[in-house]
């Protein structure tokens, strides 16, 4: 999720970018807290499904289990967003080597 002067940019479940206005994005704090708690529970269970014999402290779970799951989610969302930005002509994908690199697409024309 990113911020813009117009509101919050989000990547929805289908990987599409969406923009929510600041006015329309005022969710009930209790609903938002429950949603966040459900996401934490899902991240913990995802981690334990991969590492079922893991044990850790509160601090270890926060630092290792949840951060690991968050990075995994962010990377998969980032892959979709980068693809969308390339398709829209805003970024350029540079192939060569093992992994592609991305940069702002050079402008062409008189204003370049």
Number of strands: 5
Instruction: Label the structural class.
Output: alpha+beta
Q: Which shape, going by the Cα principal axes?
A: elongated
* Average residue-wise pLDDT: 78
Distance between the termini: 30 Å
Low-confidence stretches: 1-16, 18-25
Largest sheet: 3 strands, antiparallel
Helical region count? 2
The string of secondary-structure elements, in order, is EEEHHEE
Q: Largest beta sheet: what is the strand line-up?
A: 1-2-3
Helix content: 40-55%
Beta fraction: 15-25%
Give me the Rg, rounded: 19 Å
Helix and strand layout, with pairings?
Elements: E1 2-4, E2 7-11, E3 17-20, H1 29-50, H2 58-87, E4 91-94, E5 101-104
Antiparallel strand pairs: 1-2, 2-3, 4-5
Give me a quick take on this structure:
By secondary structure, this protein is an alpha+beta fold. The protein has helices spanning 29-50, 58-87; strands at 2-4, 7-11, 17-20, 91-94, 101-104.
Question: What does the model show?
Answer:
- The structure is a single chain.
- The chain has 112 residues and is an alpha+beta fold.
- The chain has a domain of 78 residues.
- It is built from two helices and five strands; from the N terminus they run βββααββ.
- α1 packs across α2.
- It starts with a strand and ends in an 8-residue tail after the last strand.
- The N terminus is likely disordered.
């Amino acid at each position: 999720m990113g911020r813009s002067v117009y509101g919050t940019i989000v990547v929805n479940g289908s990987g599409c970018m969406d923009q929510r206005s600041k006015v329309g994005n005022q969710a009930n704090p209790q609903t938002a807290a429950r949603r966040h708690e459900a996401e934490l529970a899902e991240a913990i269970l995802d981690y334990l499904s991969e590492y079922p014999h893991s044990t850790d402290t509160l601090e270890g779970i926060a630092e290792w289990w949840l951060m690991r799951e968050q990075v995994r989610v962010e990377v998969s969302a980032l892959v979709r967003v980068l693809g969308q930005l390339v398709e829209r002509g805003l970024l350029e994908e540079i192939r060569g080597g093992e992994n592609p690199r991305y940069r702002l697409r050079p402008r062409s024309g008189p204003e370049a």
